[in-house]
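Students often ask why inverse folding is considered easier than folding. One informal answer: many sequences map to the same fold, so there is more than one right answer. In these notes we will look at a single instance of the problem. The structure comes first.
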């Protein structure tokens, strides 16, 4: 019988919101390890109930996966083959919605 190795904790992550794309609404977060370096490639970050892979030290949450109203959340980060670790609180902005069609009326002077 082969007994698998005991899982160890992932590194303590620090997550910060970098930007929200004004065109697509997608939000980019920077994910850092305790030494202030990029979190390992392929780690998974859970934000707003969805999992996103770390690529180049960042994760991108698409607009359609954002909440209707801005909120604060505590994401979880998990390195491959390790236990998940709770990160710091971050702002999760509301999804961007289409603007209403403008109505233009001509004003008349009498």
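Output (designed amino acids):
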């Amino acid at each position: 019988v082969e007994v698998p190795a005991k899982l160890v904790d992932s590194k303590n992550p620090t997550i910060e919101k970098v930007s929200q794309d004004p065109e697509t609404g997608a939000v980019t977060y920077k994910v850092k390890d305790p030494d202030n370096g990029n979190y390992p490639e392929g780690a998974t970050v859970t934000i707003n109930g969805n999992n996103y892979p770390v690529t180049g030290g960042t994760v991108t949450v698409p607009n359609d996966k954002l909440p209707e109203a801005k909120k604060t959340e505590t994401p979880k980060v998990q390195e491959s083959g390790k236990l998940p670790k709770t990160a710091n609180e971050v702002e999760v902005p509301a999804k961007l919605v289409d603007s209403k069609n403008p109505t233009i009326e001509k004003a008349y002077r009498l």
